[in-house]
Amino acid sequence: MSLEMSPALYGLYKTLKIFVFPVTWITISLVVTLVLLLGKPTPSRWKMARICAAFALGLFYCLSLGPTSTWLASILESQYPFPPEALQRYEAIVVLGGGVLPAGGARPLTELGPSTLRRTLCGVALLQENLAPVLVLSAGDAEPFATRPTESTEMQKLALHLGVPDSAIVIESVSRNTYESAKEVKKLLEPRSKILLVTSAIHIPRSMLLYAKQGFRPTAFPCGYSVGAISWHPLMFVPNVGALDLSSDAINEFLGMAVYRLAGKI
Predict the structure, then answer these.
(1) Do 30 and 108 sit in the same domain of this protein?
(2) Domain range holding 162?
(3) One-character DSSP codes across 152-216
(4) Cβ atoms < 10 Å from Cβ of 157
(5) Do 53 and 161 belong to one domain?
(6) Which of 106, 175, 200, 205 could form a disulfide with 224 if both were Cys (CB 3.0 to 4.6 A apart)?
(7) How does pLDDT run across 197-246, given as a tens digit for each residue?
(8) Are 190 and 115 in a shared domain?
């Protein structure tokens, strides 16, 4: 099973990917419920409408709770310890992008997304600790339906502003996802393979598998955690948007690893 995608196929992939997210499942269930209620009333239609409505409500409630989202994310974020034991000297520090916010509307300038900003700051700090001679910034334009600023270029601007010499920065600006990132970085670094891999904690498990599959000897450096210790209180059982968003991120990671495993990429 190949994951090599033309621009058109990549656009289709990104469109179909919306079905990964729980909010899509909830919306489809509510639409089906509405269609059933607007049709000719029959016992079977009313029964199916109740089932769809209950599914949507149950899914929304469960995935919008703090304990649920914390449990899902912690499965991913606890797989690699922080800080990694016995940090050594590496051949490169590889920082993965996580989104860019283009200028437009009320935003006067292009900004790094929160995840990308944290990852870049971590990578720069590690380079300044002399853990590797080179900083690789990996991310292209992942938007299939519009042209956005290249993430790695925006990451480079921040690194340079923080004092990293241009000669110590390597830019990978082609990749649209983590699989492509691993492939493209391999082309840039080969035969070097001992790397310190920097990305968000929730994204580390998938990234480590994909980079190891490409022949790297990666050490994980989780940067930016979504969850901490649970503090139990009554409001934890009130749904909130942040929890639903975190549950969606975790489900995306689980399904992503499943797809890559089926495709033989990890």
Answers:
(1) no
(2) 81-222
(3) HHHHHHHHHHTT--GGGEEEE---SSHHHHHHHHHHHHTT--EEEEEE-GGGHHHHHHHHHHTT-
(4) 14
(5) no
(6) 200
(7) 999 999 999 999 999 999 999 999 999 999 887 778 888 899 999 999 99
(8) yes
Burial per residue of 9-31, b for 16 or more beta-carbon CB atoms within 10 angstroms, e otherwise: ebeeebeeeeeebbeebbeebbe
Residue 223: CB atoms within 10 Å: 25
Coil/strand/helix, residue 264: coil
38 and 158 part of one domain? no
- State the total domains in the chain: 2
Residue of 164, 109, 170 whose CA lies nearest to 139:
170
Q: Look at residues 189, 84, 178 and name the one whose alpha carbon lies nearest to residue 136.
A: 189
Radius of gyration of the chain (CA): 21
Q: With CA atoms as reference, report the closest residue to 155 among 227, 72, 95, 221.
A: 95
Describe the strand order of the beta sheet including 194-199 as a list of residue ranges. Answer: 169-172, 135-138, 92-96, 194-199, 217-222
Same domain, 154 and 204: yes
Q: Which tokens hold the place of 45? A: 């239609």
Identify the burial level of 215 via C-beta atoms within 10 angstroms of its C-beta, where 0-12 means exposed, 13-18 middle and 19 or more buried: exposed
- CA 222/CA 84 separation, integer angstroms: 9
pLDDT surpassing 70 at residue 1: no
In three-state secondary structure terms, 245 is: helix
In-domain check, residue 89: yes
Do 144 and 180 share a structural domain?
A: yes
With beta carbons less than 8 A apart as the criterion, state whether 21 and 248 touch. yes
End-to-end Cα distance, the chain: 12
Residue 140, pLDDT above cutoff 80: yes
